[in-house]
Structure formats: C-alpha cells, structure tokens
TrEMBL record:
EC number: 2.7.4.3
Keyword tRNA-binding: no
PANTHER family: ADENYLATE KINASE (PTHR35509:SF6), DOMAIN PROTEIN, PUTATIVE (DUF1995)-RELATED (PTHR35509)
Compartment(s) where it occurs, according to its Swiss-Prot or TrEMBL record: Plastid, Chloroplast
Any one GO MF annotation of this record: ATP binding
Record family assignment: Belongs to the adenylate kinase family.
Keyword list, A-Z: ATP-binding, Chloroplast, Kinase, Nucleotide-binding, Plastid, Transferase
Xref: HAMAP family: Adenylate_kinase_Adk
GO cellular component, one term: chloroplast
Protein name per the record: adenylate kinase
The keyword ATP-binding belongs to this UniProt entry's keyword annotation: yes
Organism: Asparagus officinalis
Length: 481
C-alpha cells in the first residue's frame, strides 16, 4: 500500500514501482471509472451516488477493491493499492478478510511544499500533460499560452484537501503501524524511488527466505522452538509476560510446560535429567522460597511425563543443592532459581555445579539479583563473588516477544538466540488464513540494542546512527533489562 497527500508524487512513484516490479496498480478512482464504464452491478450502484453528487459509500468502494484483488493477474503478479484504504471502516473491512499488505509506504512532504506544488501546477488541455510554473515549466511559449489551472488547484481548496487527507491517514495508521515506512518525499523522484526500491527489495528477500525455509523444512520451525547446546552449563531466558516475575502475573504452569518440554527432549536422547526446584532455606513455612515458586515441586510431581515412564527413570525431581547430585545424572535443569530478600540461592547453586563437575547445569529464567538482608545470611560470600558467579552462566537460549508502545498486544515480533548461533530478529506477519508467521528481518553477531532493533523494523541501514524516537522509542527501554 502507498499513501501520500495531493502533489506528494505518489502517482509518479506508483508508475516507477509498477515498471520495476510488475505489480498490478489498483487505484479506486480508476476502478470507479472502469466499473461505471463497463456497467457492472457495482458500477451501477456507484453511478447513482455520483450522479446525485454524493460520495460513494465505503462498502461499495471496498467491494470494487476486493473484486479486483480476486482476479488472476493480481494473484500472479501481486498488487499495489494506491491511496486505499482511506477510512478506518475500509481498513477494517480488509482486515476482516485477512487482506494485508507486506508494506505500507507513506510519502512525507511538508504542507508548504505540497501547497506550492499544487498551486503552481498547470494542465495542457491538448496533451493532458502536467507542468509546474517553477519546477517543470513548459517547453515552448505556445504550450505556455494554452495552459490551464485545474479548478482544485487553488490554495483554499488544496488546504481543505490536505486536512481531509490527514484525517483519513490518522484513522488508518493504527491498523498498519507495524508495516509503516515513512519516506521523505521532498526530494527528487529518483531519490525517493531509490529508498522505496530498497524497502521493496527487502520485502522480496523476506518472501524468498520464507519460501526457502518452507521448502527445505516442509514447515516453518516455530520461532520459539528450543535447541540447546548441552555440552556446557548455561541459562535459558524466556521473556514473555507469563514468565516474567517482575510483572503482576507469573504463570507457573507456563514455566512448567517449558521445563517439561526440555526435560523430555533430553530424555528422548537417552539423557538422565534431574529437574531441581528451590527448596526451603530456613525455619518456617516457605522460608526463603520466592512466592512465585511456591508449590512448583508438587506441580512437577503431578505433571504428565508421557506414556513411557520417563519420570522415575530418565527424569527425576529434586532440589537445588550439592547433595542432590547423583552419579547417574547427565543434565541438571534448575527451575527459575531466585535470590529472596535475606536468603541467597547462589551458595546452594555453586555447591551443585561443583558437585556436577563437567555435567551441564541449565538455569531456566534465573533471577539472581543481589538482595542482601539484615540477617547477614547472604554475606557467606562477598557480593562481588556472588555476582561474578551468577554472570558465569552463558546464555544458551534467549527468546523475547516485542510489543507495540504502551501495550502488550499485539505482538510486533520477537528476538531469539540459540547458542552458539547468531541473534535473529523476527517480524510478525499475519497470514490470510488467520494464522501468523515470523520472518527474519535482521541478524546480529551480538545481542542488539533497542536502537538497532528499531532501525531494523524501520528499514534503516545497519550502520545508521541516531536515537530511536516516536513509536519505536519504547523498545530502547524494554530491551535494557
């Protein structure tokens, strides 16, 4: 989809896009004239409104667009919607039918430039060619003498059209904000097209990658699938709302599902897994046990571990500590180890890793912030030593969902790393079937910053510097955690 105010150069860019990419150009103005000319049912309805001087209702315009999108040439070549949708109602109608573009391009030109372009335009009634008194004057005096100013190109009418355009654009931007790419239209046509061309090539590359993945794998691997390196100790970080102990809701059931999936995958490979939960660290009920983990041991005991008797043979449940390490254990999974105020789990963890030797110890969503209490219990090791030990666990898997500013939903994408591979940034794409998929839009050798993620979603070059702002600025804060 492409949008631009009157005189933004949208028509010129559409022509250049179609010439290079062969897309079917769909303009509602052209559609209306064609339907009326052909005398179709939709055209007859539209003509009634037009003859009476009324605007054609949204539903009729949408019917025309949908009818055009269903034709074979569109299915074969792809489509370029020019200046449509123009209202929230039209955008909603397309959304309900799962019709979404791969990209939404907005030509951005200052109002004073747009007004100057319109007021200075002249029409040659003989050739229908458009000139501009300053920017594109006629070739001869003869042509200049016959040029006309179009009725809509007065300053008053141009300003009115601009206000209408802005209202329409604001109404639909919320629908396509995840696909929005603003392009500076106050440049030469070649410079503007160069940027648009770069954006479209990126879309094309994403499509090729997706088809390649589907062909090689039969189906896309879910973006949050986990493939751990089990040769060394490490930590798994899953950052979604229900697994974030910083938030109001901490769904222990989701965490248990993650642990079960991991444990059973290792058991399928013939590994003996010890799943360990934080135990009590003092006298009294739940002493030293973070409330988020209360009852998790019982949940693990009662979970469904499959039909083949994995629990008790390949999978055993235990607590965090050196005494829990048995000779037959191959891998240890520590469920969300957390320091509690005045109680430090790090001592027990270190005893366990020392006893495990070279065997992998995997921390699932650890929260090892230093929380010393007045009791002095946590002072059995120095603070620097505690933090150094906690930091010694290298990320072997990381997954974080990315959301729009100010809300958790809808999801805009995800960030994923599987050791020892790269960091992949995914963009969420809605499928016509109502499902979703994730397309890689950027890769990084190290964990990207918020600015790098914002730049990738905006399609900026990797080496471009500058702080994120506007709707993208929110990511900078989120990704510092």
């Amino acid at each position: 989809m492409i949008s631009g105010a009157p005189a933004s150069g949208k028509g010129t860019q559409c022509q250049m896009i179609v010439e290079k990419y062969g897309l079917v150009h769909i303009s509602t103005g052209d559609l209306l004239r064609a339907e009326v000319s052909l005398g179709t049912e939709i055209g007859k309805k539209a003509k009634e409104y037009m003859d009476n001087g009324h605007l054609v209702p949204d539903e009729i315009v949408t019917d025309m667009v949908i009818s055009r999108l269903s034709r074979e040439d569109v299915k074969e070549k792809g489509w370029l919607l020019d200046g449509y949708p123009r209202s929230f109602s039209q955008a909603s109608s397309l959304e309900k039918l799962k019709i979404r573009p791969d990209i939404y391009i907005l030509l951005d030109v200052p109002d004073d430039i747009l007004i100057d372009r319109c007021v200075g335009r002249r029409l040659d009634p003989v050739t229908s060619k458009i000139y501009h008194v300053k920017n594109f004057p006629p070739e001869t005096e003869e042509i200049s003498a016959r040029l006309l100013t179009r009725p809509d190109d007065t300053e008053e009418k141009v300003k009115s059209r601009l206000e209408t355009y802005k209202r329409n654009t604001e109404a639909i931007l919320s629908t396509y904000v995840d696909l929005l790419n603003k392009v500076d239209g106050n440049r030469s046509r070649e410079a503007v097209f160069s940027e648009i061309d770069s954006l479209l090539q990126r879309v094309q590359e994403d499509a090729v990658k997706s088809r390649s993945l589907e062909k090689s794998r039969g189906d896309l691997i879910p973006v949050n699938s986990i493939n751990l390196n089990v040769e060394a100790s490490g930590k798994v970080e899953i950052n979604i709302p229900e697994l974030n102990p910083e938030m109001d809701v901490y769904r222990i059931g989701t965490l248990m599902e993650l642990v079960r999936t991991l444990a059973l995958s290792f058991a399928d490979d013939g590994k003996r897994v010890k799943v360990c939960v934080q135990g009590s660290m003092g006298e009294g009920a739940l002493a030293g046990m973070p409330l988020q983990l209360a009852g998790s041991r019982k949940i693990l005991e009662y979970m469904d571990w499959g039909e083949y008797g994995a629990k008790g043979t390949f999978i055993k449940i235990g607590s965090i500590g050196g005494r829990e390490v048995d000779e037959e254990d191959d891998i240890f999974i520590l469920v969300a180890p957390q320091n509690a105020v005045g109680n430090c789990i790090i001592d027990d963890m270190q005893a366990m890793t020392d006893a495990a030797g070279d065997r992998p110890v995997i921390l699932i969503n650890p929260r090892l912030k230093d929380l010393p209490g007045s009791s002095g219990i946590m002072q059995t090791m120095g603070r620097e030593e505690r933090l150094k030990y906690a930091a010694s666990f290298e990320n072997c898997y990381f997954f974080r969902l990315l959301y729009y500013a100010g809300t958790q939903y809808p999801i805009m994408g995800a960030l994923r790393m599987t050791y020892p591979y790269r960091w992949d940034l995914y963009k969420r794409v809605d499928e016509p079937s109502g499902k979703e998929r994730y397309v890689i839009i950027a890769t990084f050798p190290e964990k990207p910053t918020g600015d790098e993620i914002n730049d990738a979603f905006e399609g900026k070059p990797r080496n471009k510097k500058g702080s994120a702002s506007g709707i993208w600025g929110f990511l900078s804060g989120i990704l510092q955690a």
